[in-house]
Q: What sequence folds into this?
């Protein structure tokens, strides 16, 4: 916001200084130079805004990728637990395995919410036409 105000301020200053200069000594070269300066300023402002938008998209993508990596690691860990075939050799072991399984079910239920939120973020990136959405 401050950057935008600074840009607008400089554009106003350019115009005022140029107008004062033209009043003192009207000259086509000064008028042409002032026009070029204002157009260059507009181009820089537009380029800056485009870059800012691109950087925001880069940040969104990095956050998305980080969450994807975390979900992938968590899912791999859950797969390893589910792949474990130990049924226990005593009543206490079976009860402990049953408790671990209930805990895993709770964890998976909570993770479903993370997956839904992750999916929502993916949908938002696509709807905003993120530069990397087609990959």
A:
């Amino acid at each position: 916001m401050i950057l935008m105000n600074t840009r607008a301020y400089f554009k106003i200053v350019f115009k005022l200084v140029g107008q004062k200069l033209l009043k003192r000594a009207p000259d086509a070269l000064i008028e042409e130079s002032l026009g070029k300066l204002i157009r260059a300023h507009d181009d820089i402002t537009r380029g800056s805004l485009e870059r800012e938008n691109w950087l925001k998209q880069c940040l969104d993508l990095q956050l998305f990728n980080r969450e994807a990596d975390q979900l992938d690691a968590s899912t791999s860990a859950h797969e390893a637990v589910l792949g474990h075939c130990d049924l226990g050799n005593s009543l206490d072991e079976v009860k402990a395995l049953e408790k671990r399984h209930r805990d895993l079910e709770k964890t998976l239920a909570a993770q479903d919410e993370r997956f839904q939120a992750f999916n929502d973020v993916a949908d938002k990136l696509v709807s905003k036409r993120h530069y990397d959405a087609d990959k």
